[in-house]
Specification:
- The N and C termini lie close together (12 Å).
- Strands 1, 2, 3, 4, 5, 6 and 7 form a seven-stranded mixed beta sheet that branches.
- By secondary structure, this protein is α+β, with helices and mostly antiparallel strands.
- Helices cover 25% and strands 44% of the residues.
- Strand 6 and strand 7 form a beta hairpin.
């Protein structure tokens, strides 16, 4: 249940501000409907993945701190430059890192690499987060 709530809080934190900052740019969340066979010239993929859990507190009833990553991929058609991807990465880093959303604490943004695939230049960013239990 915490994962669903964390996911919704992180999506809410970026959805409207992103649309205001980058009007007309598609922001695709996880496996949401999207025409992968006919993508636009610029779009961004936003995915949240819970990857681990560790016990905290050694009381009679230990609790679990969960952790994961927010992944952001900025896609732009080859030949249109890469500066836009860097702007997207900067925007997400400034919007999310060191912020608290509900019980989720987002940590420092890290580059997740640069690639080219299917006619697109892609820059990726990952932001680790953790969630302490209530």
């Amino acid at each position: 249940m915490e994962y669903v709530q964390t996911r919704e809080e992180l999506i809410t934190a970026v959805k409207i501000p992103f649309a205001a900052a980058f009007p007309g740019v598609a922001l695709v969340f996880d496996n949401a409907p999207f025409d992968w066979n006919n993508p636009p010239e610029r779009y961004v993929c936003f995915e949240i993945e819970e990857v681990d859990g560790d016990p905290i507190g050694m009381r009679a009833q230990p609790k679990t701190r969960t952790s994961g990553f927010v992944y952001v991929e900025a896609h732009i058609k080859l030949g249109l430059g890469s500066k836009w991807c860097a702007q997207i990465r900067d925007w997400f880093a400034e919007t999310l890192q060191y912020q608290t959303f509900g019980r989720a604490q987002v940590q420092e943004a890290k580059s997740d690499g640069k690639t080219e695939t299917k006619g697109y230049y892609i820059e990726s960013l990952k932001l680790p987060y953790y969630v302490d239990p209530a």
